[in-house]
## 1
Amino acid sequence: MNKNYLITTGGSGGHVIPAVTLYEHLSRDAKVIITTDKRGLKYLNDENYQLRIIDTPRLNNIFLFPINFVLVIILTIKSFFLLKKNNIEKLFSTGGYMSLPLLLAAKFLRLKIYLLEPNQVLGRANKFFLSSCEKIICYKEKIKNFPSEYKGKIETIFPLVREKFYSLKQKNFNSQKLDLLIVGGSQGANVFDINLKNKIVNISKKHSIRILHQTNEKNILNLKNFYDENNVECLIFSFNKNFEEIINNSDVCITRSGASTLAELSLLNIPFIAVPLPNSKDNHQFENALFYKEKECCWMLNQDTFEDNIEQLLNNILSDNSEFLQKKENLKKLNYKNTWTNVHQKILNIINEN
């Protein structure tokens, strides 16, 4: 194994989880290093990866800009020597400002750069380096805000999902009891923690329901006590290393619209109620959810009207599961060619093109 690659990532799970999945594909054929900032460390186990910390500062604070600009230059020099020392041939970036020093250093060294865009809107960092990259790997051909002159660099694959998801045996649907998963994503969702629980209690008086609720660490005990007091069966958790098992034990999910979470739910044929984060950059969460809604695989609710509509929507799903079952079938059709082997081979074809 004499190939040497580097994946640069960091920040939220939306950047790091695709990087981890990409690592699973690339590490079978090459020696792979992952760089991340300190925020991204919580999604990575340093026992399993060759990790390097490149803790890139944000450049959006006008008062700290001079200091942070100097730090970026220092980190770019550090990245230059990291790439040289490890004989890196190809660099892969999942986007975000965290990757800026590595991408600049790779450009100076004239390395082959591959960008990954998991969202339905082109990220700003990816847009800046489009002219320098060999290819940009996307989940569909039409990406919002994508410059027409670089369309030829787009290569499409199925959304990246970790290998262990493909081996899960999908749960059989029990119409007598609904397992509802509530996921706020890596950036959290207070709207799911405040009044949704009261709606759940109302629903539980008419229908049999079990709640699988992801919340922040400080809220676990309060939420569990609330459900217990109201005789609602529940599993309350924060970060869980076996999250894929929890997802797989659900029937319907209320979720933000991060690309990785939607891809995992889609692969497991779990219909979801998407509530896009209103202030996501370039409204990318809305576009991510819209991709699945247009294929009739999910429901979408606006955060501003979420509390007004969620109880009725869940009651409708529980009273008549025909729409739910149709969305499950649509997800199955969407993913019928989505196998780990197919995705793996497509990635290898992309990076090994002459």
## 2
Amino acid sequence: MSTTTTAAASAHLTDVDVERLGAELDALRAEVTADLGDDDARYIRRVIAVQRGLDTSGRVLLQFSLLPPAWLAGTAALSVAKILENMEIGHNVLHGQWDWMNDPEIHSSTWEWDSASSAEGWKHSHNYVHHTYTNVLGKDRDIGYSTLRVDPEQPWKPYHLLQPLINAGLALGFEYGIAIYDIELEEVAAGRKPWSVARTELGGLWRKVRGQLLKDYVGYPLLAGLAAPTTLLGNLTANVTRNVWTHAVIFCGHFPAGAETFTEDQLDGETRGQWYLRQMLGSANLDGSPLMHLMTGNLSHQIEHHLFPDMPSRRYAQIAPRIRDLCERYGLPYTSGPLYRQYAGVLGTIARLALPGGSAREDGAGEGRGAPRGAGADGQVVDAADAVDQGQRRVDEHAGLRAG
């Protein structure tokens, strides 16, 4: 990540350009919204049916988990079911992506997901705070989740020396870490939030977590009789798998090199076009197959998701080429890369910034405080400066979007 005033990536754009960019994105959103229909509804219902089938199959197989093949198959099915429920279904339903169907069973106001975080708590901390103030230091609490130092501009504290270990623990128990994070205990410590409110929220959190613990680690294992220990282990493995996968996908969405951070003063008078621009510069995509996109909840299209968080996720792959083309025409980076590369970069940043000072990267490869990196038309990562040069030529060739 790199703190910036967006000079490196978007200083060549005039105010008129930025608002024209916003108008193009508004038009794209309206086009997709008008096209939503039966195919989209069938898609989400089919995903939910598959997820529930996998969940049931996994639970049944784990009843015979004394047999190694049954344990492996049951654990794998349950892991995939939990990932689908968390990513492609729960996260996206809670964003209101399917509210247009007016189906009370798939509506953001009624859905409760299989995660330690309550739906209401998540919608406030994620849908409102994070998506409104994306990557704004001091406003977006998702930058390091109030624990990790992932940007050089974040003040260093002695406990950050342990942050590689803290991050490993966070990955293993990600759902619980996020649930506690949603309660904003640091605000209680700072005197900005009453303890009485936090105590009530912690009580609600415990009631939900208790139900999950009883289901996965008591109820289903007891049903398995002699296979209770192996069934419990299968459930634990599925939960940890889901947590680690979710951690990797989410951290790759905003923390890799090329994803910019911003200062609070940049919010002053921010227009819709400028908000769109911040979402594009502060997000990063993951390259992969359709199956990988499904398993990430289509958060592999993080740029598209942040531009249109309440657009049905299945549409992100459809509009991604047009967003990439838009970035090229306006001379903006489109940051994307394979999961292994993006996640390795994030882990490297967390390790480097565990020490005082430091930068996101020290290899001088256009990352850290230098020029952000984006993806070219072939999906390879390229310097933003090159993207600006190539994009400016396209700007000149496409109706002279840049004035002067």
## 3
Amino acid sequence: MSLNLWFDGRIGPQDQLAAPLTTHAMHYGTAVFEGIRSYATPDGAAVFRLPEHLERMRKGAEAFGAAFDTNEATAAVIAVLRSNHHRDAYVRPLLWYGTGSLGLDVAPLSRHLMVASMPWAPHLGDKPVRLTVSPFRRNRAEAMPPLKLSGAYVNSILAKREAGSRGYDDALFIDDAGFVVECSGVNVFLVKDGNVVAVDHPDALPGITRDTVVSLANATSRPVTLEELLEADEVFVTGTSAELLPVAALDRRTYGASPVANELRTRYLRIVRGGSPAHAHWLTTV
């Protein structure tokens, strides 16, 4: 069954909507996107932290010099979820530069916005994950701002592909000084003596799930070395698609039970499904 998309102001079947082969974003990655989750709640579908996601997308569009209307995007997200009758779903807004030139100046180009929704399973599964230190380095913030700019994700794809070729679930980026950055698409936390620490690094994406868990766990946010991560009692990762998952192993270092991570995961999943009135302000009802 064909799903519907919201595309430049109208809803239509995805198999009837297309962009030209000369679309600038196809050639240069000149696009910005978000990954957003909708969940079934007792009151119907609800989108988790939608304003925060769209504000981050606005910043990405601003980096490209593209106008982005968060009110328009909010209405589009709700419209496409309703059109597809989705409750548990992944929502993908994408703003991109279209036609007008194949040069590097984006000013003459057309601008387009699409929003899709689709059924989704967490991309790292639901079991503790195995990480490996990547031979790749993360895009440096001085060269590429840590936002969801489409072209920047080639870096993540290369690292995740290399990690997968060696039998691991995901790649862990560290910098030249041995500090942890993030994984290919998730932020990193550690637990030591019951204290939760969120890895802080200027090259890492400011994750919205990360921010959520920092709030729930009253976590400290600071730089973390690879050595400290290896000595932690627990390690876990967070992201919109992955939600919250314990880490089973980092290269040869294996971790045991993850009581803190599992308790936070349970709380998080309860909140996104409308089970915590104190956090209802994080949900946008569809």
## 4
Amino acid sequence: MLRSVAVIALPDVAVFELGVICELFGYDRTAEGLPAYDFAVCSVDGGPVRTQSGFTIVPSHDLGPADEADLVAVVPGNPDWEPPAAVLDMLRRAHARGAWVMSVCTAAFALGAAGLLDDRRCTTHWRHSDALAARFPLAKVDPDVLYVADGTIITSAGTASAVDCGLHLIREEHGSAVATQLARRMVVPPHRDGGQAQFIETPLQPIECETLQPLLAQVLESLDQPHTVDTLAAQAHMAPRTFARKFRAETGATPHDWLIGQRVLLARRLLEDSDLGVDAIAVRAGFGGAATLRHHFGHRLDTTPQAYRSMFRTRSR
């Protein structure tokens, strides 16, 4: 069980990325029924670290807590800066003893320098993915995903993808109910994009349009209903073609693709957290029958509902 977290702030640390790790793991939310972690912000020597925004932070620890933490997270500094040997040795020790090792954005370069990306799938910010692949040719860099979990090594792409990456890890350790509750507390979507490479998908872009947001919230509460472009357009008081264009412009997906994606996510949650049979889950998620559910599971996740339940329900309970 994940109980302790150490985050390593490298020189020229990115403030937002550090803040994401602090938000995910550094707050005591036990009063809300969420787990608490023994949390430490570390620098190489325990001394101040300059941020990319021009001010300096003073971490509470040197690298000591990282040698015992269940999760060691590294947040980005300057990707051209070589981490000191002490950091690289600590990362290798953490991996060797079975701890989770997570990089945010260009902190993947530190994991690469420690040799932890050799023969592993990994990712980083798309602007730096070519450089990561060039510097560490044994790494299997995938620039098209938000994060990659390969064993206990987790790498995430730029900025906000660290939220999805962290929620994935929390889901792995504490189950989907905890991850979903924390996501709701943070007011972010609980994408829960899976624990292995084949289950990782790039989530849809967040909805920022005030006109579509209420409609999509209603749809998410009624996925068992037979929604179509025509019915959704009518609810939005738009012509179907206008609605479809507006939907794609604001979400990056067609209404049909978005709806299927949300139904698959609901089916996954029900497979993990309920005792419902596959037929009942198919109806509840709006697929109508098990055959349609299996079709979309196979297309999107390359697995079956039964296999998915066997894997993730065992992990989360």
